[in-house]
Amino acid sequence: PFKFTKALGSARTLYISEYEDYADAWTYAVGQNVDTLDVYNLIPGRTYLWKTVYDDAGVMTVAESGVFKTTGTLRMLKIDNVFNVRDMGGWIGLGGKPLKYGKIVRGSRLNVNKSTTLMITQNGIDELRKVGMRSELDMRDASNSVNATHAFFGSDCPILNVNAAYNSRIATFANGPQSIQGINQLIAWLKEGKPVYLHCSVGADRTGTVAYLVGALCGMSEDALCKEFELTSFSGDKIENEASRGTYERLIRQRDYTGRLDPNDNNESYKFAKMVDKIKTYPGATLQQKVYYHLKTGVNGTKVSEAD
pTM score, two decimals? Predict the structure, then answer.
């Protein structure tokens, strides 16, 4: 939240940047006689410079300036009419180093299932591009996706629609090579410098499984991976039910952990636990090595190359 010293009689622009020359600045319009503004989606743990500039008789003049530092590590993102959106950056990976922010962002769908009608607003598109997203990995089933030719936030951004992705419902991974296809594409885009927006319908299970595997490959601990997966339940978001349009449901997994002891229990926590147990059957001394072995051996001939 910004509270300016005074409201100006003219409009002004707020600039926020990590650099003294204000390179790559985030800009916000501040209306006439407005003295407060809320800013979202900055990177945690960063020092930013800020200034407000207005036109004073044809001369661009700095009204106020300062420095602030953001706190925390978890970067939850506010994207208009898109839900459960968070950056995978900040978690500790290999060598005790944090994963970079702005490389992989996960969340819910950007368009109505089975339709090219957008759910994301133009402001949401602008914000998603501002945080750096330049490709879209859609893990929805073909019955829900629409085989788009480019990302829903830009014709200059590629998209991959992954059909029949495995998720925490399928502990055997026996019929899910398409998820590894998706991980291959995610890696390829990152190598090309195109940060990835990863989603399925609500950004929970199919998205969570890919995020779990990629996070483990980057060296995140099991504890951190489980927390990252479960953050969906604490997002507080409500999203339109994909099967019953016009009704909205809370994004929450059924957190009955005793279900792990009951093979007939069908709740989400039990399915997730089965997936984690399955991963642990692969060779390797660490979870990272076990996921690495799973991805390089692949499913039904689809695998991730050792070089990648």
Answer: 0.90
